[in-house]
Amino acid sequence: MTGFWGILEHDVDQMVHLYGELIDDLVENQGWTFDKEIEWVTNDPKTQALLKEAWAILADEIEGEYTDEHQEVIEETQVEKWTLSNDTHVMTLSYSNGHILSTSVGFPEYIIQRIKLESPCYRADGPKD
């Protein structure tokens, strides 16, 4: 009953650093899916326009020069998150500190408790480097 890994090899060390072997057990033995999501978030209209232009240039949808300003705005607005999902249940977790950001209605409490009890990121002294 293997789940699905939606992360790249270079993200594995960060995942293990935050969660130890817990996520591996959930995916490999309990059929959960573990992904990494990347979004670019801003409420500023000027920044949104610059992001839109940057992506259009990178996708060859428009002519133009990709500038340092484009790169800067992409880096500054990028937000990375982990997701743990199974059927209709979805949990969003912080990429940087591993803590739970949100869960869908009815998310299994035993999974929430396992994450809080077993993950190095929730221990008082934090994950071991």
* Rg, nearest Å: 18 Å
What is the CA–CA distance across the termini? 32 Å
Strand and helix order: EHHEHHEEEH
Count of alpha/pi helices:
5
Mean pLDDT: 92
Low-confidence stretches: none
Structural class comes to alpha+beta
Q: What is the number of strand segments?
A: 5
Write the layout of secondary structure elements.
Blueprint: E1 4-6, H1 12-19, H2 22-30, E2 33-40, H3 45-58, H4 68-77, E3 78-86, E4 89-94, E5 100-103, H5 109-118
Parallel strand pairs: 1-2
Antiparallel strand pairs: 2-3, 3-4, 4-5
Tell me about this structure.
With 129 residues, this protein is an alpha+beta fold. It contains 5 helices and 5 strands; from the N terminus they run βααβααβββα. The protein has helices spanning 12-19, 22-30, 45-58, 68-77, 109-118, and strands at residues 4-6, 33-40, 78-86, 89-94, 100-103. Strands 1-2-3-4-5 form a 5-stranded mixed β-sheet. A hairpin with a 2-residue loop joins strand 3 and strand 4 (89-94). The protein is elongated, with a radius of gyration of 18 Å. The two termini are 32 Å apart. The model has no long low-confidence stretch (mean pLDDT 92).
